[in-house]
Amino acid sequence: MKILLRSVKIIDGGSPHHNKTKDVLIEDGIIKTISDKIGEGADKTIEGKGNCLSIGWFDLHVNFREPGFEFKEDLLSGCKAAMAGGFTEVLCMPSTFPVIQSKSEIELIRTKTKEELVNVHAAGALSVNLEGKDLSEMYDMHINGALAFTDDKKAVQDSGLMLRALLYTKNFNGLVMSYADDKYISVKGQMNEGASATQLGLKGIPSLAEELMLNRDIFLSEYAGTKIHFSCVSSAKSIELIRAAKTKGLKVTCDVSAHNILLDDSMLNEFDTNYKVKPPLRTKEDIKAIVAGLKDGTIDSISSDHSPEDVENKIKEFDLAAFGIIGLETAYAVANTALHKTIPLENLIEKFTTNPRRLLSLHAFVIKEGEKANLTLFDPEEEWTVGKEHIHSKSLNTPFVGMKLKGRAKAVFNNGRFKEIA
Asked: What is the CATH number of the domain that holds 42?
């Protein structure tokens, strides 16, 4: 099948066509021709109309809930949500039932999604059953396709276990992903510790819980001489610590959740549980630090932290409600709304494309002739109001329905297929 994209602006720092407006012809899943004007006939023509074309977006942190919690999300509905948000590849967290901790769970993910446009990769559990007591069979998972190892939001409290994980994965260049949270400090916290929590009478989660654990893991990675990635950092001090570690030459990387760039803890004043996330929404000062970290490269990637929850777990008393929001359909738009004209578009797009793949040692796609078409077409200027019709997840736990955002994916291309986004 031939698909012609007319007059699209290419956003790809590694491409010879970067920042140029071109016609792009895709044939049978391969970029066949890039030129100022392509007269060749095509089965489908998509007019640019100010649209940009980048490498396909990659989300480093999603929960598709299968196996075990398919009523919240399953692999196929997760793929639909990913496509709707402009993503062609995702990394699934292992917090399922059973936990993703062996070859069989990884093969389940691969088998069920092999015909999908979206490439679904697996992160394996760092510890058995995410219990933080014994190391999982990381090497066996690695040779069967696991791209990283993490206990997701169940932060590893045992320093010795984390050190052993870092030393073990060093043998095969594996990646440990750490969610920094000292549970003995954050215990039973419901939102960010601060003026808003005091006003609402809710127990706070101090940023210290994140910063203390993050500092510990930086020390451990330095001692082990290995790399480490921090998931969903949220506080100004955390970003300062990561910046210092990078300056020191340590192999430290991190990502931030899109909603933590746009939303702050004052959003919880109406006790709306759709704003209850982990890590919690922090202060406006923390957001300023996040933006600075994105601008100077301290923060490598932006993730959706897609966390579907059913109504029974979300629509209840605030202190009993589950943490998490869905984010695949809105992650780019949320980040673009928060960062529009604050950082260059190409730098923002790197956080969704080349950087996540680099962290996972995956193929670095480039928009050039002969390359596989793993692409996202998007309009960074389109303003739209999120409606329920835009949500393709099985769950609807999002505060963004009814919110006006800027920037939207228009089509995705991967695995010889394409999907226009309505």
From this structure: 2.30.40.10
12 band by pLDDT with thresholds 50, 70 and 90: very high
pTM comes to: 0.97
Cβ neighbours for 221, distance < 8 A, ≥ 6 positions apart: 166, 227, 228, 250, 251, 252
The answer to whether residues 288 and 273 belong to one domain is yes
Kindly give, in sequence order, each residue whose CB lies less than 8 Å from that of residue 139, ignoring residues fewer than 6 positions away.
Answer: 168, 171, 172, 174
Closest CA to 229 of 293, 137, 150: 150
Domain that holds residue 171: 56-359
Strand-pair partners of 303:
257
Instruction: Outline where 157-300 has alpha helix (H).
Output: 159-170, 183-186, 195-200, 207-224, 236-247, 259-262, 284-296
Q: Which tens digit of pLDDT belongs to each residue from 77-99?
A: 999 999 999 999 999 999 999 99
Of 305, 323, 306, 327, the residue nearest 314 (C-alpha): 323
Per the CB < 8 A criterion, the answer to whether 302 and 261 are in contact is: yes
pLDDT attached to residue 49: 86
Q: For 94-139, how does the pLDDT look when each residue is reduced to its tens digit (9 = 90+)?
A: 999 999 999 999 999 999 999 999 999 999 999 999 999 999 999 9
Catalytic residue among 23, 152, 305, 379, which? 305
In this structure, what CATH number is given to the domain that contains residue 335?
Answer: 3.20.20.140
Same domain, 134 and 222: yes
305 is catalytic: yes
Q: Is residue 364 part of a domain?
A: no
With DSSP H G I counted as helix, E B as strand and the rest as coil, what are the percentages for the chain, rounded to 5? 35, 25, 45
Number of domains in the chain: 2
Q: Largest alpha-carbon pair distance within the chain?
A: 65
